[in-house]
């Protein structure tokens, strides 16, 4: 259910991204790839949406991992664990992790999308990965 | 290289973003350090977990909603952001952090459609640009802004009490203004969108507010892509538009629409709406 609510919000923000895109298309300069520009727009809208909230809403697991010896734990979907862990780290770190691990962007492309120095991408990814591992560990995941 | 230096470069090493010489030095350290090697293994396992994150497929509902909004050509007509009841602050529904990842995945996954679609939805209106100049100038110098508007569009200086002869209705300012305002001028202006009764009102501190009253045509294209939000001010659903250090506000008042330019804050909008609702009849200054 929580995931459904999350996706519904994603639909709303996606809609906002596209409306912004139609309005701002004249600001697109072909100095960067259109795809990069769209990523930036999506990231900015997503972050803006999140910052407007008063507080983060953590997702709840549909199952509570008790320990590695609990047979229920084995059935908990790794995907669900990762989604919960992602929901618990800073939005900027979440963005950079998704851009790298899911979208497969290079550091140069991530720097362009996030509007940060290329040299900062590695250190932020370090933080994102370490914090995710910590969150996963707190949820009972063992690498 | 020591552990601390390697830890700082570990993601870049893992992602193949290091120069050859740095990569070799990090690699040499990892070969002899179980702690750093263990962390690298953790990164690999995290990547394997992330590989199960799929790209959500945008639903038909999202496309329908986007198309609908584009067809309306004005976010003020049907606000994208959910309105909230709040007298003095702008606020929004509470978000979910998870939406960020899903938004990125969904929005980017459909980029080609976007690029194609834009060419069939050209949305740049000449009037929006012209009126935008007026809005920008109003923040700097309302008198200059007024000159720009009057030079641009056919207009006539009128007595508000006789506006009915021009526009077929008695404008709100004909009933006077709240005590802290004085009426400076009223014009009937024929703009491309509609014919408006526009009044310039001076506050006690000398600053100015423009009140536009027009028939049932809404403020299409008036504000272009300026940031806006829909909120309830008193009992009216208002579209508030962010101008530099000021806001504009537009709402339906009876069978017509009122648009304020040069508003100081939401409290001022509330105050004017209250006054209009109560149909006070103060002495016209």
Automatic annotation (TrEMBL), chain A:
Work out whether the entry's keyword set contains Transcription. Answer: yes
Q: Which UniProt keywords apply?
A: DNA-binding, Sigma factor, Transcription, Transcription regulation
Q: Which GO terms describe its molecular function?
A: DNA binding; sigma factor activity
Record GO biological process = DNA-templated transcription initiation
User: RNA polymerase sigma factor 70 region 4 type domain: from which residue to which, for each copy?
Assistant: 80-132
Tell me where in this chain the RNA polymerase sigma-70 region domain is found: 8-55
Do you know which Pfam families this protein is assigned to? Answer: Sigma70_r2 (PF04542), Sigma70_r4_2 (PF08281)
- Listed InterPro entries: RNA_pol_sigma-70-like, RNA_pol_sigma-70_dom, RNA_pol_sigma70_r2, RNA_pol_sigma70_r4_t2, RNA_pol_sigma_r2, RNA_pol_sigma_r3/r4-like, WH-like_DNA-bd_sf
Highest taxon above the source species = Bacteria
Positions the record marks as coiled coil are none
Annotated family: Belongs to the sigma-70 factor family. ECF subfamily.
Task: State the name under which the record lists this protein.
Answer: Sigma-70 family RNA polymerase sigma factor
Species this protein is from: Gimesia benthica
From TrEMBL, chain B:
Gene3D superfamilies per record: Anti-sigma factor, zinc-finger domain
Family annotation (Pfam families): zf-HC2
Respond yes or no to whether keyword Transmembrane is given for this record.
Answer: yes
Alphabetized, the UniProt keywords read: Membrane, Transmembrane, Transmembrane helix
Bilayer-crossing residues are 97-115
Superkingdom: Bacteria
Q: What is this protein called?
A: Putative zinc-finger domain-containing protein
Query: Can you name the source organism?
Result: Gimesia chilikensis
